[in-house]
Design goal:
heterodimer; A: mainly alpha; 14 helices; flat; B: mainly alpha; 11 helices; 0% strand; elongated
Chain lengths: 311, 289
């Protein structure tokens, strides 16, 4: 257990370092002269020198890295946006609420629907219930987010006219974007839950419980479910960064003013300080989510807790 | 069938796989659909009623009719023809990206598993990061370095997908590294490169093949997403993602525009996923309960 956690902490530190280095290098990895690339060919020498200084590119590279990192850690300062002329931090803090609202709702939908559907498919294995759930899951997983979003807009916004199709407003505006983001995850979780459940229902102790004469409901919900849920709990954390990935597309489809939309606009406008900040934040979040998943896994799975062995 | 029996009747592993695959209805459906899609991609210039970029400005945003089966877009281009030509792009993107990422991942996985030690440790930490990072975000970060465009998007996606190959190949390499025949190869003086590629690689081929089949549809989806976001294929390319990005603007007045390219993506992805599932079950029958 101790060894397992130390190994994970070590790996956590390396991953955070790698994410930091990668986000910092985005600007420097641009082929050719990044300042020229950002300004285009018609910039004057004065503009050129000014931007070079603003980006800190006139200093040695290790000083640049230390400056960049120190500003983030000490002041939460990601530099100034090249397009909006305001601190990047302001741009992000305006939008982060919307992204959290969207990903949070999608996260809830994913588990609230995915777990019961997966259990149902496992209990009624190879019946109409199972085939319907797994069939729907296969379809949902083959639809890119942006198309699922367009289809939902068409059905509920254009044909039935019951929900607004884009922008922000009251709670009704959240429904379609969060369904778009959440439904493919419902499919993933239902499949995972079904597989775990079938796996556990096959185990000897479930047989024993059945042989003892316990009711089916009791066997499923008391004995099988607890063990089948372990991988799902881990997945609850692992899934968070992927929701942020999906949010990039979903926010664009629904004109939702979140971080994902900001990332796309910033890439298109070559606003590198903003891109770096967003990649750094989402990267750090990914590493933290994975670390949390590893720890939770260690605490809830007795096999890891005792022997220190684990996937 | 057991190992002994297989040797006795002299059937190769691939033949055996095909026999099992053939019995899987869903997988065979996927294979048939894929063959149709490939035929469409090859025959697009022959079967498409119009050129994919030909504009009929007098027929803008026409609903489906006998003249334009899938309707027309905002420049009066025939949506059916564009969807048909789109298969060429989707297949090219999917296959190329999967092959490039397989080449990167397999090489790194072989090196990591065979040499072990610090090389292995470093490579596997990189794999951990790339593997857990949401692929679209990583691809976006790489596109922000390289600049928008379909080729750059493909490079970016390939750089996000190699990690799963590296992980699987490393694991299998570790398990066969200590086998007697590898030791024998080393004893007769075979070079490391030859041992890696002619002795170890054939052992992991089937896992790689399954992974490639799953990666093609993922690559198609991520590429279409990048095009939808304006960072992949550029106009007037008949790319499905790009078409849907314009279709979104005309959603209320031309709903058919949003339907057909999306259905095309879904069918293509489903076909590959069915084949992937069938292949996985046929290669590793012990996993099927």
């Amino acid at each position: 257990m101790k060894k397992y956690i130390i190994r994970k902490i070590f790996s956590f530190i390396i991953c955070i370092l790698a994410v930091t280095l990668f986000s910092f290098s985005l600007l420097h990895l641009i082929p050719g002269d990044p300042v020229r690339y950002i300004l285009g060919e018609f910039a004057t020498e004065e503009q050129y020198q000014k931007l070079k200084h603003q980006l800190g590119l006139d200093k040695p590279i290790h000083i640049q890295f230390i400056d960049w990192l120190a500003n983030i850690i000490l002041r939460g300062d990601f530099g100034k946006s090249l397009v909006k002329n305001v601190p990047v931090r302001e741009l992000i803090s305006e939008r982060i609420v919307y992204t959290l609202q969207l990903t949070g709702t999608a996260w809830l939908i994913a588990f609230a629907l995915g777990i019961p559907l997966g259990i149902a498919a496992a209990i009624y294995k190879q019946t109409a219930v199972d085939y319907t759930v797994m069939g729907l899951a296969a379809f949902l997983m083959s639809m890119p987010y942006f198309w699922l979003g367009l289809v939902l807009m068409l059905i509920f916004g254009v044909m039935l006219k019951v929900l607004p199709i884009s922008g922000i407003g009251d709670w009704r505006n959240v429904i379609l974007p969060s369904l778009t983001l959440g439904l493919p995850q419902v499919a993933v979780i239902a499949r995972l839950m079904r597989a775990n459940m079938l796996d556990v229902l096959d185990k000897d102790y479930v047989m024993t419980a059945k042989a003892k004469g316990l009711s089916n409901t009791l066997v499923v919900f008391k004995h099988a479910l607890r063990n089948a849920l372990i991988p799902i709990v881990t997945y609850m954390f692992l899934q968070i960064p992927w929701l942020f990935g999906g949010a990039v597309v979903t926010e664009t489809v629904f004109a939702w003013p979140g971080m994902g939309r900001l990332l796309i606009i910033s890439i298109l406008q070559r606003d590198y300080p903003t891109v770096q900040a967003l990649v750094f934040l989402i990267g750090t979040l990914t590493v933290i989510a994975n670390f949390a998943a590893d720890l939770v896994y260690a605490f809830i799975d007795p096999r890891v807790r005792v022997t220190g062995e684990g996937a | 069938m057991t190992e002994e029996k297989r040797r006795a009747v002299g059937v190769s592993m691939w033949k055996l796989t095909w026999r099992r695959f053939r019995k899987n209805k869903l997988a065979m459906t996927g294979l048939v659909i894929l063959c149709i899609i490939i035929a469409i991609a090859i025959l697009a210039p022959v079967i498409a009623p119009y050129s994919p970029v030909e504009q009929h400005l007098e027929d803008r945003l026409q609903p489906p009719s006998s003249k334009y089966l899938f309707g027309t877009d905002e420049l009066g281009r025939d949506i059916l023809s564009r969807v048909l030509y789109g298969t060429q792009i989707a297949l090219r993107v999917g296959v190329l990206v999967a092959l490039i990422s397989a080449a990167i991942g397999v090489t790194l996985g072989l090196i990591s598993g065979y040499y072990g030690g610090i090389v292995d440790e470093v490579l596997m930490r990189i794999v951990d990061i790339v593997w857990s990072f949401p692929s679209l975000i990583l691809a976006l970060a790489i596109v922000s370095i390289l600049g928008p465009g379909l080729i750059n998007a493909m490079v970016a996606i390939a750089l996000t997908m190699w990690a799963s190959y590296a992980r699987i190949v490393r694991g299998e390499t570790l398990s066969v590294r200590e086998e007697l025949y590898i030791e024998a190869a080393r004893a007769i003086g075979e070079s490391d490169i030859r041992i890696l590629f002619s002795y170890i690689l054939p052992n992991v081929m089937s896992s790689i093949l399954v992974l490639i089949t799953y990666n093609i549809p993922s690559a198609i989806i991520v590429a279409a997403s990048l095009s939808f976001l304006g960072l992949g294929a550029q106009p007037p390319t008949p790319d499905w993602g790009l078409m849907l990005s314009t279709a979104r603007t005309y959603l209320t007045i031309a709903p058919w525009y949003s339907i057909f390219p999306g259905v095309a993506i879904m069918i293509t992805v489903l076909a590959f996923n069915f084949i992937g599932d069938g292949l996985r079950d046929a290669i590793q029958p012990e996993r099927v309960s």
